[in-house]
Request: fold
Amino acid sequence: MTTRQLGTSDLHPSVISFGTWGIGGPPHWSPVDEKTAVSTLKRAYDLGVTCFDTAPVYGLGHAETLVGKALKDVRHRVIYATKLGLRWKEPENNIYRDCSGESIRFEIEQSLRRLRTDYIDLYQVHWPDRNVSLEETFTTLRALQDEGKIRYIGVSNYSVDLIREARQYADIVSVQPRYNLLDRAIEKDLLPYCRKERLGVLPYSPLASGLLTGKYTRESTFSDWRGQFGDFFKPDVYERYIIMVENLQCLAEEIGTTLTTLSIAWVIAREGVTSAIVGANTVEHLESNVAAADLRLDGEIMDRIDTILNER
Reply:
């Protein structure tokens, strides 16, 4: 699979990265059989995926544990990208933000243990923490770099202004925003900024939390987090998105591919994007995702996609 340089770092992730939120299971997703999850992670590596994106909060540690178990024999040939800043309190497992230096040092040790490694390739701040100064967060991360526990620093869900300020305290090589056919907000300022400043871009949710797989209809209901918090699934906008999805599905069938593959291929074709982070709970899902690495979208197809998206 094709790889691309991540910003100014010496990391070269595959154009499709494996996102592990889904295989982490509860509290956000349904349980995934551990044997299936491990075999899917191993198959991803066999298919050329070299970057595995995870976080402590995914399955409350379970996703990192699965990655460490599945990839321990190829650890030095893959990129581990994990995160910090979302903690949980037992027994209720209420999730909260904490990007303090003390918390970061606790989290890094837990992640290293679960991932069965002594260093993290890319350590990313998961969400901004307004209660902790950026100086404290990023000077701590820089110290972890000096200690050899992390190689590079990234951010997720950060605005341009926050990135600018954070870069005063540490060298940031990548940004992880939400980006897909139905949410193109980063094209306004974040994506141009990253291109100009040579920051890697690792979009998550290229399938819009599953909506761009084409498996949902106007009658579908969602009992997981999407039904309560998902932007694309709110009753007042859901039908409008479904119409766009149906039209995109027709286009995908016309060119002999699936909506899943088309949606991922569109993301990795955008200028400035390094690698799309895509989840997969089964080998079948994975292979549909990976097919996007070989799908080339010409100017005519890109224009037709824009036409569909503009019909609102």
